[in-house]
Write a structure and sequence with these properties.
heterodimer, A: 503 residues, mainly alpha, 2 domains, B: D-Maltodextrin-Binding Protein, domain 2, 6-stranded mixed beta sheet, 14 helices, globular, DUF112_TM (chain A), transmembrane (chain A), transmembrane helix (chain A)
């Protein structure tokens, strides 16, 4: 079946009224799940799973997928308005989205995030249709050494994110890396920093960390200034509209973010959190005035949001073409198919083309629905800022606790949110960037696992990082990047001494 | 009209429950309230799907809701811990994989329970062997040529598992010891990762869940050299049994399993009733078919059979853990 026939076939599946209905339910639910801090697609999908027993597998998959990519839209809302990331993927959106909201440009920031999410998703669907075969082959070509080298590049490239003081940034990345080592050592089974607590054997809960660092810390911080809070003035329609300047600033970041997200999404196990961080780092690097970042640069919203939405779409490539789920949420969706007696695997595309193409078409429909749903909602979201803090913040704390609990039904994780939140507040007092801590935490375990796995596979020979072409490429780019920034620092110093010499 | 009636029944039920006279009645009317089943893995995971396949008909048979409590973490250990902590007399049970009952006592520090003392076996639900899988283009074609390739030099063959101390790891080491070879262990987090690595040519082999390997066998990218159970497995009927091949012991048998357990101290009559219901559910052809689709073969049997199985496997895997511990 050619892609064209497949698409036509997909329309005949996805345009059935009942299937459309499940698509609508999925994306609407996804949006709201995404907006609520802490409660992510994972919790929503596992709650919906029992319902899928009673509907067709196509409807089930389309609905669950809708929740998944819909939550990526909603995630940005609380990040921008309240500096509380709705999902870990949108944590990076707080860096510039929140300053924009503080400057009275909340509407524009939300518009930028919705638009770039939409464009990123639609382009990623095109990538999915055209390059699915190539991407799935690429996914199997990536070995442990390649992943390790790629993640190191990511860490180096992103380590300038959201920090004016390099030493502070370095400290936060390192702290994140250290937190990432908590739990069972994959190679030896040894317990690291678990202090005999069974709940810590699987490491620190990512949702608890993100909610504590950003959410609780922000709430505590605001309690101190709550009295001084002036009610934000009414937002007029004009303020929602981006200027022509905004639009042109958004264009390239959106496209670059889409490209990054499409690629990283398709690799099993890397995912959308990393692509949004990398997109931010990239925009900051290529920007003519990098100092605008962190102070409300619209590029810092558009790029990462395009990236995480594109990644949410291409994440289906290994899942559907190889039957290899890239993350736990994808594994859940495949679980929904298994319940219906469909064995996901490389043959699924041939055996059940209706499933694959129906889903692809539903992505298009779902994203269009999300845009139509979300643009009018912007005004409502912004007016949320006028809810008095004494109502808003307790509600947020409740949602965050629910979110942390929902990951595995553990009361321990709620206590973890509180403890991390306190730590996060102290860090924010000292102006440390929680985003960099989160980055270190996400990348650290991936680097460690893949580095050690690569060394095991090579029987202890580090040359594996230079012998494999993909890994060698990443190592080379990393070295160039470090050399460049050293050269820049040195030249600036030289300039300064010459300058003072003339005086 | 209906409201007072319901209230009357409720009051009556409460009175019976509280009355000291009702000791005999309680046994006869068990369960007196919702039954809670603790699962040590998240909703939607394979152990969870399997548990729900049983709990749904169980609720109908018991006439009370059966609530699945997902308490995930530490390879299923947290589910068992939470079941024991619940202290809900005769109404807390657990569905667990073999690990927390057999190997965790050796592998998990601060386990918090003693299987022999704290756990009452109820019924074995289902078993699954692992299959030895390789990429199609790999040279070995059967167990004999695989062992030959592995003998060429120590660690000539690398294999992936789903983690240190996992069933996949221990089974591979049991095999290696029986065959007298040394293989290189590469731990991964999931069969999805093991599959990618085998297909990408990074590692050579893996002892995998049949349903993880099967789709790739059908696509022609993977092949199965053998199955670790004593009998052929219906999901992969063509795969030869490893036992007895190429000089391996004829009783070579390694299986993963799922079972229903209760806290020690649960009323024996309650355990017997639950065991009867579970055996009836497992006898249903439709349930058997659904289990097999997921890669599990329905088993059943008496609580004592499960108890014996726990003892045998604890000794079997304990010996493997001793050996690889000594090798490190």
């Amino acid at each position: 079946m050619t892609a064209w026939e497949g698409l036509l076939h997909g329309f005949s599946v996805a345009l059935q009224p009942t299937v459309m209905l499940y698509c609508v339910i999925g994306v609407v639910l996804g949006t709201f799940i995404g907006v609520l801090p802490g409660i992510g697609a994972m919790a929503a999908i596992s709650l919906l799973l029992p319902i899928t027993y009673y509907i067709t597998p196509e409807s089930a998959l389309i609905m669950l997928a809708g929740v998944y990519y819909g939550s990526q839209y909603g995630g940005a809302v609380a990040s921008i308005l309240l500096r509380l990331p709705g999902t870990p993927q949108s944590a990076v959106t707080t860096l510039d989205g929140y300053p924009m909201a503080r400057q009275g440009r909340a509407g524009v920031a939300l518009f930028a995030s919705m638009m770039s999410s939409f464009v990123g998703s639609i382009l990623a669907i095109v990538v999915l249709v055209v390059l699915a075969g190539w991407l799935s082959r690429a996914a199997t070509q990536f070995g442990a050494a390649d992943y390790a080298a790629m993640m190191v590049l990511g860490l180096v490239a992103a380590s300038t994110v959201g920090s004016d003081a390099p030493a502070k940034g370095f400290a936060m990345v390192t702290l994140g890396l250290i937190l990432g080592t908590v739990g069972t050592d994959v190679n030896s089974g040894t317990q690291r920093f678990t202090f005999g607590v069974t709940e810590m054997m699987d490491g620190v809960n990512l949702v608890a960390l993100a909610m504590g660092l950003f959410g609780v810390a922000e709430v505590i911080g605001n309690i101190r200034s709550a009295e001084r809070q002036g009610t934000p003035e009414r937002v007029t329609l004009r303020q929602l509209m981006p200027t022509r300047n905004d639009l042109s600033r958004m264009t390239w970041p959106t496209l670059r973010g889409t490209a990054l997200g499409s690629f990283f999404g398709a690799l099993p196990g890397t995912g959308s959190t990393i692509s949004s961080f990398l997109s931010y780092a990239m925009e900051r690097r290529v920007a003519r005035q990098p100092e605008r970042f962190g102070n409300g640069a619209i590029e810092g919203v558009a790029g990462p949001e395009a990236a995480n939405n594109a990644a949410a779409i291409t994440a289906f490539v290994p899942t559907l073409t190889l039957g290899i789920p890239g993350d736990p949420i994808m594994a859940l969706m495949l679980g929904a198919l298994v319940i219906h007696g469909i064995q996901p695997g490389p043959m699924m595309l041939e055996a059940r083309p209706d499933m694959f193409w129906g889903l692809v078409v539903s992505f298009g429909i779902g994203n269009l629905l999300l845009l139509i749903l979300n643009l009018p909602l912007i005004g409502i979201w912004v007016s949320m800022l006028r809810i008095p803090f004494r109502w808003l913040y307790p509600a947020i704390i409740v949602f965050m606790c629910m979110g942390a609990w929902s990951v595995r039904g553990s009361g321990f994780d709620i206590l973890a949110v509180a403890a991390i939140g306190l730590g996060g507040y102290l860090l924010s007092l000292a102006r440390f960037s929680p985003a960099l801590l989160l980055l270190g935490f996400v990348l650290g375990p991936l680097i460690e696992t893949n580095l050690r796995r690569a060394m095991l596979i090579s029987r202890g020979d580090p040359m594996i990082f230079l012998e494999r072409p993909i890994a060698a490429g990443f190592v080379l780019v990393t070295v160039v990047l470090i050399a460049l920034s050293l050269w820049n620092t040195w030249r600036r110093k030289l300039d300064r001494t010459e300058h003072s010499g003339h005086m | 009209m209906t409201l007072p009636t319901r209230r009357t029944i409720l009051t009556a039920a409460l009175t019976i429950g509280l009355s000291p006279l009702a000791a005999w009645a309680q046994e006869a009317t068990w369960p007196t309230g919702p039954v809670h089943v603790y699962v040590g893995f998240p909703a939607g995971s394979s152990p969870d799907t399997l548990a729900r396949l049983i709990t749904e008909p169980l609720a109908q048979r018991l006439g009370q809701p059966v609530v699945v409590e997902n308490k995930a973490g530490a390879g299923g250990v947290i589910g068992v811990q939470q079941m024991l902590a619940a202290k809900r007399d005769n109404h807390s049970f657990g569905v667990t994989i073999n690990g927390p009952l057999t190997t965790s006592a050796r592998l998990t520090p601060d386990l918090g329970y003693d299987v022999a003392q704290d756990i009452a076996p109820v019924a074995l639900l289902a078993t699954s062997p692992l299959v030895l899988a390789m990429a199609t283009e790999a040279k070995p074609t059967d167990i004999a040529s695989f062992i030959e390739a592995a003998r060429a030099e120590p660690e000539a063959i690398s294999y992936g598992s789903v983690g240190q101390g996992s069933g996949a790891h221990l089974t591979a080491e049991l095999f290696a010891d029986a065959a007298g070879v040394e293989m290189l262990h590469i731990p991964f987090a999931s069969y999805a990762e093991v599959t990618t690595s085998i297909l990408g040519g990074e590692i050579d082999a893996g002892f995998m869940a049949p349903s993880a390997a099967l789709p790739h066998v059908e696509a022609g990218t993977m092949k199965i050299l053998g199955v670790t159970s004593a009998e052929p497995f219906p999901q992969v009927p063509d795969a030869p049994v490893i036992a007895g091949q190429a000089g391996l012991p004829a009783d070579f048998n390694a299986e993963l399993w799922n079972a229903v357990i209760a806290p020690a101290g649960t009323d024996p009559a309650v355990i017997q009733r639950l065991n009867t219901e579970i055996n009836a559910i497992l006898a249903d052809a439709e349930v058997q078919r659904k289990l097999l689709d997921m890669g599990w073969q329905a088993q059943g049997g008496a609580p004592e059979d499960l108890g014996a199985r726990i003892e045998v496997d604890t000794a079997l895997w304990g010996a493997v853990i001793d050996r690889i511990g000594a090798a490190d």
